[in-house]
Amino acid sequence: MTEFLSAVALLAAGAMWLSTTPAFGVGAGVSAEQKQKEMEEEVTRAANAPKADLTKLQCGNLVYAGTKSSICFADKFLSDVAEKTNLNVGKNFVPVRLDADNVFDFPFCVWSGEADFSLTKKERDNLRKYLLNGGFILSSPGCSDPSWDTALRKELKLIFPEYKMVKLPMSHPVFSTVNQVTRLTDKHGGQAFVEGMEVNGRLVMVYSKDGLNDVSNAKGCCCCGGNMIVEAVLVNVNVFTYALLY
After folding, report:
1. Predicted structure pTM score
2. How far apart are CA 51 and CA 37, in angstroms?
3. I need a labelling partner for 4 at 20 to 30 A (CA). Which of 120, 168, 214, 238 fits?
């Protein structure tokens, strides 16, 4: 009921804003009515977002920097984890705001997107608390976007000045926990790599600037995939399993 009332209040505020403000974006072919409809749809999606099923190991899809998130990170690897292990895994991503308290209900999250971004103070505080207290993040930019890569590295330096991202050797357990991966290959056949960040000896984040998004299995994604790592699904299965077992 609280969520529903909040959504109604937001809709009312949106309607008032539109009635007292010049039509936003009309010059670009976006009418006030269309903008209102988009606002209503966004509020509805947020109000109806599924909650974490705490009886399963759920993977959150981070919503950050306002409304940025990923539609180009496939959740197929979760089904593969369920098939290859005894872990009780939720097979679909659950959207979760980085600045929300319920982000701590998720032991594992994916973090992706495109273009430059900056996190809010609350998001930075939550991200630090999340990774320092048992959370794990799997991350890569959509379409190997260099602007997103730069933004992520900037944020990590601000939030974790005492820790660094380092290249993970192929001898690391994330390459053998379930699937044996001996080489990482980009879609052009070149050798790729992934990075990780450790906190007090515990790996808390795995990152690829090229891409672990598995775009070919992502629904609704128009992305070219960039310089995607061919073995992405195998690696993601390993990373998820590793994060829950170590």
Report:
1. 0.79
2. 25
3. 120
